[in-house]
Amino acid sequence: MITERTMREGLIDLCRHDQERLVKMALAKLHVSKFHRHYDDFYQEGCIAYARAYVAFKGSVDAERDRFYAFAYKLIYWRILDLLKKSWHQEDERQVSTDASPATAYHLAAMQDPWAAGYLTNIENRQQWASLMRALSLRQQEYLSLFLQQFSNAEIAKQLHISRPSVYELRRRVFAIARQLFTKDP
């Protein structure tokens, strides 16, 4: 059981041994800069995660400092990653409109450009991209590739040798599949 006394000792240990850098290292690894709007919240949660690691560590913290730091870093990293995912999903839910094509276009662009969605890790991008590509037909994949290269609908129709109404139908289907994949609850 986590008591106030042991959590307090963990926070004191964090300050006494100047281990706030573990929290800052985890934030840096997750590409959360000081300009991120939730930086202070993530930093504070990282400090609390350090205190929880102090309480949960099996063994003597003073005798096994290196092992403890590795353990604490992992807990801090995973806690902040969970919060990033949670904030991403909350923002994602707010962006879905009745048409939802701008939100879907945002997701598709974010998977192509990692800077567009700074809180997604490369692994998540690849997993989402792979699941989308598995769900699309070959013709839909070709459309998506041209769409992400910012071709106009007329240019896409010319490239794929189809009519413009067919391009609109492809677009509608691709966005419907993407919307269905990206709006599932985790």
Automatic annotation (TrEMBL):
Q: Give GO MF terms, alphabetically.
A: DNA binding; sigma factor activity
Any GO BP annotation:
DNA-templated transcription initiation
Q: Where is the RNA polymerase sigma factor 70 region 4 type domain?
A: 127-172
Q: Which UniProt keywords apply?
A: DNA-binding
Q: Which domain of life is it from?
A: Bacteria
Specify whether DNA-binding is a keyword of the entry: yes
Gene3D superfamilies, per the entry: 1.10.1740.10, Winged helix-like DNA-binding domain superfamily/Winged helix DNA-binding domain
> Pfam family example for this protein?
Sigma70_r4_2
Q: Which NCBIfam families match?
A: sigma70-ECF
Report the protein name in the record: Putative DNA-binding protein
Provenance organism: Limosilactobacillus fermentum (Lactobacillus fermentum)
